[in-house]
Design brief:
This protein has 390 residues and is α/β, with parallel strands linked by helices. It is built from 14 helices and 11 strands. It has a 7-stranded mixed β-sheet, sandwiched between helices. A two-stranded antiparallel ribbon has the order 7-8.
Length: 390
């Protein structure tokens, strides 16, 4: 399979996202070309879920290209995604002798991408980071766009992504061969972000309407997508990265004044999802807890139901969403939810809330979403109710 390349064109810089099987082997050569001859060291932050052979091949390639490479392993979890982990990695960078011309490379899923990116953004006020995502979710979302960060634990409650920085990568390399090592649940979780992009696709401006066709393209290929057909998945990653690149290029730092909703559109499903993701006792069938992608899928179901309550769309939008989620094996209902008031209160802690008002992304039609500020609490509670299985 050939390498697919998506350009992320920002006002003051640009970078490539390289997609395909085996492209991880290109990292050392590209890193040398991008960092220059003065670069000597690379700190590799590896997700322990990535098979060792991929890390070994990457490190050997870096050394062959003239870099000294040190690997720091992380076992990803929301509890590990903390300031203490960032501090530990920064201390390792100092001990290793990393300088401002050197780089951090992530090799892992979304948690590792976020942590490694924040370490690079913080170290000596910012050094280069190359993102090598290993999961579908991180390939289409976390590795692209420059959002980095960690969680805060405040009075026993986890506040997601409350500390961080915008720090664009120097390059993103999405080796789809890494997806072969994922279990079925991890694969499904990545598909939630792809469904999210499909649900906002007609709200993303593009000259040739390529992005607007993402929804129909996915609906026509749900069988191949669910079966993780290799060629289909490579194209799925390319299309989703291209859509996100367009959003980021138009609104790099999620400006509240963005005319068309801008980067905030990418939060569809997330305000609801983040509120339920870390709740104790919530489960989808026999699976314990919730993964991020599962929570986002459920959050999208909530958003559709809330939009119906507000008169923004009819229930056919939610029905189409649920059909897509069902087709790829993602849950649309969960057991063990607390009262809707508890979840609404947690949503108010989300960093997308502004000035005491709750901002949510809600659909106006299939593939079209917009920002709703100061959303009616009753409608939000009704939205939560739609995913309650008990």
């Amino acid at each position: 399979m050939s390498t697919r390349v998506v350009d992320v064109d920002l006002p003051d810089r640009a970078y490539e996202v390289r997609i395909g099987r085996g492209v991880l082997g290109e990292v050392p050569e590209h890193a040398r070309g991008l960092l220059g001859e003065k670069a000597e060291r690379v700190l590799v932050v590896r997700d322990t879920g990535v098979p060792q052979r991929f890390a070994d091949e990457l490190v050997q390639g870096l050394r062959d290209a003239g870099f000294a490479a040190r690997v720091c392993d992380l076992t990803p979890s929301e509890a590990v995604k903390r300031v203490e982990t960032v501090e530990r990695l920064l201390i390792e960078a100092v001990r290793f002798g990393l300088t401002r011309v050197d780089a951090v490379i992530s090799l892992g899923g979304g948690v590792v991408c976020d942590i490694a990116g924040f370490v690079a953004a913080s170290y000596q006020r910012g050094i280069a980071v190359v993102q090598c995502p290993s999961t579908l979710l991180s390939m289409v979302d976390a590795s692209v766009g420059g959002k980095t960060g960690v969680n805060l634990l405040v009075d026993g409650e986890l506040y997601k992504n409350m500390v961080g920085a915008f720090h664009q990568p120097t390059m993103v390399v999405a080796d789809t061969a890494l997806l072969d090592s994922l279990d079925a649940r991890q694969r499904r979780c990545g598909l939630a972000e792809c469904v999210k992009h499909a649900m906002i696709c007609q709200s993303v401006p593009d000259e040739d309407e390529t992005h607007a066709g993402l929804l129909g393209w996915m609906q026509a290929r749900l069988g191949a997508i669910s079966a993780f057909d290799r060629e289909t998945i490579d194209e799925l990653v390319e299309r989703n990265v291209a859509l996100k690149a367009s959003v980021v290029a138009g609104d790099e730092r999620e400006s509240p004044e963005a005319r068309t909703g801008g980067r905030m559109l990418l939060n569809f499903g997330h305000t609801f999802g983040h509120a339920i993701e870390t709740l104790d006792g919530v489960r989808a069938g026999d699976e314990p807890g919730l993964f991020h992608g599962e929570a986002v899928g459920l959050g999208m179901c909530c958003a559709c139901a809330a939009a119906v309550s507000l008169g923004l769309c009819d229930d056919s939008v939610g029905a189409s969403l649920r059909a897509m989620l069902d087709a790829v094996g993602l849950p649309t209902r969960v057991e063990g939810l607390p009262g809707s008031d508890v979840i609404v209160e947690r949503m108010g802690h989300d960093k997308k809330a502004a000035g005491g008002s709750l901002r949510v992304i809600l659909p106006e039609g299939l593939g079209r979403c917009s920002i709703v500020t100061d959303a009616d609490i009753g409608a939000i509670g009704a939205g939560v109710g739609v995913i309650r299985a008990d």
